[in-house]
Design a protein that fits this description.
Layout: H1 9-20, H2 25-31, H3 36-44, H4 46-81, H5 87-102, H6 127-141
Length: about 140
């Protein structure tokens, strides 16, 4: 890689702080004495933008891994909350369970999924249907 295509030390330090420091973007720019105009030029720079996007993708990937590691525990907790004596808490847990099922991760094979049968939105389920679904979910967890 030629020297002109490398990030400057200041650019690398700003990217490092954007992902590692507890500061907001304006404070980081001020810390490194970078004007907003200069930062805008950096964002238009292909190499800087590429490095920034790679760090964003890595951060999102780490976040997805954390969520995946804890999904089972969260699901168990939600199932337990459906048995809560407080009706509003139980109802919200039910909706969260149904929402998690609808928003599940998409596999590469499902990039072009077959049309799914029409299912009512979670907020449109009758209380009886929601109760039956939750009972079935709780039974599966046992």
């Amino acid at each position: 890689m030629s020297a002109s295509k490398r990030l400057t030390k200041k650019q690398a330090a700003v990217i490092e702080d954007l992902f590692g420091a507890e500061l907001e973007e304006p404070a980081i720019l001020q810390k490194h004495d970078v004007t907003s105009r200069e930062y805008e030029r950096w964002l238009a720079n292909e190499r800087f933008a590429e490095q920034l996007e790679q760090r964003i993708a890595a951060a999102l990937r780490r976040g997805r891994m954390i969520l995946a590691r804890n999904a089972s525990a969260a699901a168990r907790t939600l199932i337990e909350l459906t048995k809560c004596q407080k009706e509003e808490t139980a109802r919200k847990a039910c909706l969260d369970i149904l929402g998690l099922h609808d928003a599940g991760p998409k596999s590469p094979e499902s990039a072009h999924p077959e049309p799914a049968p029409t299912v009512p939105a979670p907020g449109r389920l009758s209380p009886e249907v929601a109760s039956r679904l939750l009972a079935a979910l709780a039974k599966d967890e046992s």
